[in-house]
Amino acid sequence: MAEKPTMGERLKELRRERGMTVRELAEKAGVSQSYIYAVEAGTRGSRVGKLIKIARALEVDLAALVEDEP
């Protein structure tokens, strides 16, 4: 059975599917580039408020980022 992707992996996949750079996503979401990098790498957790901003910037539901997270 394949492992389910982490939130960071889903974030990176969604960002790339939309042809966005980390910089573009960070600007659109109103967060720092280092924050996006850290979440994608799994080295930093995320607050719900920031996740909502990121989801809106990606034009997806919040569940697309956080489903199956422990």
Automatic annotation (TrEMBL):
Entry keywords, A to Z: DNA-binding
Residue ranges that the Swiss-Prot or TrEMBL entry lists as coiled coil: none
Protein name: Transcriptional regulator, XRE family
Keyword Nucleus belongs to the record: no
Molecular function GO terms recorded: DNA binding; DNA-binding transcription factor activity
All copies of domain HTH cro/C1-type, residue ranges: 11-65
Signal sequence segment: none
Recorded GO CC terms: cytosol
